């Protein structure tokens, strides 16, 4: 008899408790990235596991997370069991404690004694400790102190536990508003107000309706919400200790004296906000509410007699504190921390201070006294995010930082070296580098070597066209010729630029032994005698185990923004690779893409920006939601020492830049393109012997056109309709590279021209740019009427659109398009003069921008071979090289060599 199909699965977990009370869960047979989403299937707080803390293939869960995970609905098909007896006992403990967590009876089974919580629940001792720790942690997360808890117990027992944002009506929001006195001798007004979800204006009944029942006081359109308003108002006032009586049938409205307001702010406000109720305060009072203690620490080197300081110098600190301009002694500060005070009075004003933040400051002080910190370690300490390393003199700063480090002069000069990127030790360029470096590129080399020597990761984010590749190649030559270690350096790049790296390394550093680890023919073993191992992001993910076995001399990510999705397997795996030096290359301004920035820094300096959750709270939300200039400044200061970015507009670079830079961008054929290419050549060559000279020339020219279209995209050669843009990009690395590059140029606020010989290629580029980047790129062809052409040229010059597509012949002459700073040649013309004329649409009199010309060439194809021949034939007559006829005059052997695919 056949067994019924079972879709249920058990996953054994090994559970250990850590010293700080968190839990370490690991499944020996399954990667954490695979099983954690099953456990977090209903955990909204972590975005269903996306923000779960995973370290070395193990889940690190807090007591609160354990309660939330094991009290919610479990996965319908996946169940978790203990990998051993102890682990099974822990899982039983989790379930027992979690069964009490959500019930109102929890608070009748808790005993409060000062700062401690005990439980009388009928569970084992481990469960009691877990439950008590989870309750304390949940209260702390909400900003509540143990002093607040007794007054909250009735609220918790009536359904207010566990603490969460209060359920809101989809159409209406109920809030409590405190309005300041209109005159000095007037009173404050505390009242219930409502607003529609799509409105920013709060509504309250007119004075004559204040005493009317809620339903009668409401406008007709809101009558149906009267019960909800009554229920929410009752909940709010059950938490306010300063209000004795409440008529639940009417809108609440009461006048308060200054003293009553102080009591409300001191005793009730934090509780209400912590429990998710909206409280509307006067703007100035809101600012006062958020005021924090000012802390200042002067860092000095222990050896004060030295005039110069190094990164490894031991520091000592002098601490001072102030609030609202009034100095506070260290003793008073310690007392405030010990008493967990949230509100204190300075002069005639009351201030709310963040007790948790002050606890962190005290811990920081203790660490600085107990440990011998160096300047280098100071940069990497997990200091609260409000703390910024202020290098400028305080008198010259418009901001009053909450936490300020002052450095003695010898330390300031050292930190300026890191932040200003100057004064690095000179590095001799290797004689094996077959090109010369421009001054800013020499600086880039010296910076990379300095960062390596000081064991700092580095993000080189120079503008496109400034030579990040050549700076890295000169660095790699320096490192491997010094023979610091025998391990190779690893370069990981997108597939679309792999060919470029192969060509550039062979051209500028032929002395380096380069292994390309890519393609179906590759071996899993890494050649550790190589100087450089070159691979792609996709291949690195597939062979991650082999790559993780090696401690690399250096690991470089080119176009490092490819690891921006920090939760993908690829990003997580690559960020776990180990090297003596981690380098990220990117041409995008990373400080404008915050999730990308976090991923890149997590690669070059694991943990420097904290967990993504903390980074999101401290930087992403304030910057992206509130556009906080203060937070932007803090982040810039924090990342500045490890980021070098020069743009083509930098005055220091202008004198060192050519007016025009021509660059060949090499792209490989996909497997599909290579197969079609070989088939077309074999089919054509087999016919040549049977044709006359004239027919032979015609067939060769026809084949050349097909090959060039095939190099662009197989769909053009096969005359297929266009599919989804992502699918189309996967079939041609050249298309992917052009579209991605154009998107990056547009994102930086620059403009580009894209020339192609083929109408189909122009339409394909339009399709992909629109679908992937929402860029509407006009396409100027020979059939376009003159008035429409003139209008498009005028609009492009006025910067109305960033990308302009042009057919090579129609757009190659007679147009003035100097707004473009980039020119992209999607396919090559046999006549270099035609290409040059097209380039000159941007590079001509009136052009004030540096012009970057990109010529796209598919490796090993007729495009690359023709490119080489054109360079060699520059000395020959113009008649010979300015047409494609010379190709038809080749001997059969030369033609065979020209057409053979070399990959």
TrEMBL record:
Transmembrane segments: none
InterPro entries: DUF3670, Helicase_ATP-bd, Helicase_C-like, P-loop_NTPase, SNF2-like_sf, SNF2/RAD54-like_C, SNF2_N, SNF2_RAD54_helicase_repair
Keywords attached to this entry: ATP-binding, Helicase, Hydrolase, Nucleotide-binding
Domain of life: Bacteria
Sequence ranges assigned to domain Helicase C-terminal in this UniProt record: 737-896
Helicase ATP-binding domain location: 449-607
Molecular function terms from GO: ATP binding; DNA translocase activity; helicase activity; hydrolase activity
Official protein name in the record: ATP-dependent helicase
Origin species: Psychrobacillus glaciei
């Amino acid at each position: 008899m056949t067994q019924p199909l079972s879709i249920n699965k058990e996953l054994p977990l090994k559970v250990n408790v850590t010293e700080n009370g968190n839990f370490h869960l690991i499944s020996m047979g399954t990667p954490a990235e695979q099983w954690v989403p099953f456990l977090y299937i209903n955990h909204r707080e972590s975005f269903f596991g996306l923000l779960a803390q995973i370290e070395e293939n193990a889940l690190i869960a807090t007591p609160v997370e354990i309660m939330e995970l094991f009290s919610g609905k479990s996965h319908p098909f996946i169940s978790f069991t203990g990998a051993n007896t102890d682990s099974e006992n822990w899982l039983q403990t989790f379930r027992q404690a979690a069964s009490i967590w959500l019930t109102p009876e929890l608070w009748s089974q808790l005993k409060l004694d000062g700062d401690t919580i005990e439980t009388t629940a009928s569970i084992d001792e481990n469960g009691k400790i877990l439950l008590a720790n989870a309750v304390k942690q949940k209260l702390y997360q909400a900003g509540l102190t143990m002093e607040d808890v007794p007054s909250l117990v009735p609220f918790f027992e009536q359904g207010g536990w566990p603490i969460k944002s209060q359920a809101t009506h989809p159409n209406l929001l109920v809030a409590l508003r405190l309005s300041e006195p209109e005159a000095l001798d007037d009173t404050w007004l505390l009242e219930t107000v409502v607003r529609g979800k799509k409105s920013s204006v709060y509504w309250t009944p007119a004075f004559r309706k204040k005493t009317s029942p809620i339903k009668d006081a409401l406008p007709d359109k809101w009558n149906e919400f009267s019960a909800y308003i009554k229920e929410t108002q009752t909940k709010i006032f059950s938490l306010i200790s300063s209000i004795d009586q409440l008529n639940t049938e009417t809108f609440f409205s009461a006048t308060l004296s200054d003293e009553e307001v102080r009591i409300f702010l001191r005793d009730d406000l934090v509780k209400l906000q912590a429990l998710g109720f909206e409280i509307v305060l006067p703007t100035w009072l809101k600012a006062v509410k958020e005021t924090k203690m000012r802390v200042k620490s002067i860092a000095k080197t222990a050896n004060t007699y030295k005039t110069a300081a190094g990164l490894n110098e031991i520091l000592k600190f002098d601490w001072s504190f102030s609030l609202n301009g009034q100095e506070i002694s260290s003793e008073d500060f310690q007392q405030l921390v010990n008493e967990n005070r949230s509100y204190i009075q300075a002069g005639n004003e009351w201030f709310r201070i963040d007790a948790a933040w002050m606890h962190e400051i005290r811990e920081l002080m203790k660490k600085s006294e107990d440990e011998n910190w160096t300047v280098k370690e100071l940069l990497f300490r997990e200091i609260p995010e409000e703390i910024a390393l202020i290098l400028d003199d305080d008198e010259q700063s418009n901001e009053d930082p909450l936490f300020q480090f002052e450095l003695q002069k010898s330390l300031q000069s050292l930190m300026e070296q890191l932040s200003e990127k100057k004064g690095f030790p000179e590095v001799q360029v290797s004689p094996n580098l077959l090109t010369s470096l421009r001054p800013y590129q020499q600086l880039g080399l010296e910076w990379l070597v300095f960062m390596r020597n000081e064991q700092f990761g580095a993000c080189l984010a120079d503008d496109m066209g400034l030579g990040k590749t050549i700076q890295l190649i000169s660095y790699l030559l320096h490192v491997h010729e010094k023979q610091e270690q025998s391990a190779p350096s690893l370069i990981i790049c997108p597939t679309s630029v792999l060919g470029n790296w192969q060509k550039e390394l062979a051209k500028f550093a032929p002395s380096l032994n380069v292994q390309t680890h890519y393609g179906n023919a590759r071996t899993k073993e890494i050649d550790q005698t190589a100087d450089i191992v070159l691979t792609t992001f996709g291949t690195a993910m597939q062979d991650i185990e082999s790559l993780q076995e090696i401690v690399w001399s250096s690991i470089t990510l080119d176009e490092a923004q490819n690891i921006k999705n920090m939760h993908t397997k690829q990003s997580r795996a690559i960020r776990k690779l180990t090297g003596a030096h981690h380098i990220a290359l990117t041409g995008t301004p990373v400080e404008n893409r915050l999730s990308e920035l976090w991923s890149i820094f997590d690669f070059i300096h694991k943990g420097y920006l904290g967990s993504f959750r903390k980074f999101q709270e401290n930087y992403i939300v304030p910057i992206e939601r509130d556009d906080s200039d203060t937070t932007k400044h803090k982040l810039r200061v924090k990342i500045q020492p490890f980021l070098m970015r020069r743009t083509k507009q930098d005055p220091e670079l202008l004198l060192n830049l050519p007016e025009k830079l021509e660059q060949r961008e090499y792209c490989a054929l996909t497997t599909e393109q290579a197969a079609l290419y070989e088939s077309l050549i074999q089919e054509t060559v087999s016919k040549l012997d049977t044709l006359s000279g004239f027919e032979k020339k015609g067939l060769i020219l026809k084949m050349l056109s097909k090959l060039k279209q095939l190099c662009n995209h197989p769909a053009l050669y096969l005359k297929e309709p266009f599919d989804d843009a992502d699918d189309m990009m996967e079939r041609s690395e050249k298309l992917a590279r052009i579209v991605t590059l154009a998107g990056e140029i547009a994102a930086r606020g620059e403009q580009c021209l894209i020339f192609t010989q083929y109408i189909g290629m122009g339409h394909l580029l339009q399709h992909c740019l629109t679908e992937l980047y929402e860029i509407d790129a006009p396409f100027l062809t020979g059939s376009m009427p003159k008035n429409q052409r003139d209008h498009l040229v005028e609009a492009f010059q006025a910067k109305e659109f960033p990308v302009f597509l042009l057919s090579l012949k129609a757009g190659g002459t007679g147009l003035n398009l100097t707004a473009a700073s980039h020119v992209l040649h999607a396919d090559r013309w046999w006549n270099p003069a035609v290409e040059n004329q097209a380039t000159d649409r941007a590079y001509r009199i009136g052009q004030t921008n540096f012009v970057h010309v990109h010529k796209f060439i598919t490796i090993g194809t007729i495009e690359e071979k023709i490119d080489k021949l054109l360079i060699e034939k520059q000395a020959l007559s113009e008649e010979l090289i300015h047409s494609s006829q010379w190709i038809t005059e080749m001997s059969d052997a030369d033609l065979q060599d020209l057409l053979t695919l070399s990959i």
